[in-house]
Fold this protein.
Amino acid sequence: MAALFLAILVTAMISKEAYLVHGDIGTASFYNPPYIPTKCDGISEEQFPPGNLFVAVSEGLWDNGAACGRRYRLRCLSGPKRPCKQRTIDVKVVDFCPLTPCPSTIMLSRDAFAAIAHKRGRKINIEYIQ
């Protein structure tokens, strides 16, 4: 009986630890159309996922273009005037950051930004995982 209790306790602790594992922390802002041409697929409209949930990434994630097509799950953590909506979204990398220097880790399409944050601020803190 004690062994069963111990096994349940250990399993619960492992499950709790697994839940506490988080992704990377960064910043996000949004950029405006026109979104094409992109560094990944040029002028192809098919590169954009349904709902226009796509991003351009900064040098740290770009990886000489290997980031093209990668998918990230992200959520808003904080920002000025409490902008976060309580949800996560899945986004697709379609471009390299169009601004130099890039103002954030990830530049979201306007639709992607609106999905996770109220437009009270232009820059938010995010958690993201591939």
Remarks:
- The domain at 22-129 is CATH 2.40.40.10 (Barwin-like endoglucanases).
